[in-house]
Every structure is written in structure tokens, then in C-alpha cells.
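Comment thread on ticket #2218

A.B. wrote:
> Attaching the input chain for the structure job we discussed in standup.
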Amino acid sequence: VQLVESGGGLVQAGGSLRLSCAASGLTFSNFDMSWFRQAPGNEREFVARITENGLSTWYADSVKGRFTISRDNAWNTVYLQMKNLKPEDTAVYYCNVHNLDYWGQGTQVTVSS
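C.D. wrote:
> Ran it. Output below, let me know if you need it in another format.
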């Protein structure tokens, strides 16, 4: 299984970014997918999850209303649209096959104040 995240970068507070995670080596449409993030000195934390068919989503309270997770099973890709970014959103963002120990290399998101 390979997960490749992209789309991170440096953005000012209040800005937006869209992260992508391309998956291979698995039947993508059979699995829920999640996004996690890890800031320096902190534990990796849950951000969002989406069911295999895209019909249900869950979010951490800290991002609810600002982030949207989505997926395109035809392209084996999961997305994280992030709006109204805050400095506390600064972290390395990882995608994950839900409940499995498969992780990408992460993409850095830095939000300046």
C-alpha cells in the first residue's frame, strides 16, 4: 500500500489549502480513509474521516466547519479542503487507511499569523 500526500504549503491565517492523498496497492473503495496531523512536540491527532462510499464524515472539533474531507474513488484519492486556516493548524498532515497502519510521508502545512 502506498499513500502519497500533496498540496501543503505556507499560507497566511484565514487562507485556504486543499490537500490530496493518492492511494495505490489496495481496493480504495473498500476502505474508510482518514486525515491526521502532527505538530512539533505533539502527538499525532485525528482530523477527519470519510466512509468508503463518501456518504458519512467525521471531524475533530477543532476543525469542524472549516475543513471538508472528500474522496474520488475513480481516482483513488482522498482530499482535505481547509478554509479559514489558523496558526494552530500548522502541522504535518498525513492520510491513513482507517484502522490500518498505512501512512503516507505527510505534507507540511504552515499557517502564518
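A.B. wrote:
> Thanks. Noting for the ticket: DSSP finds no helices and ten strands in the chain.
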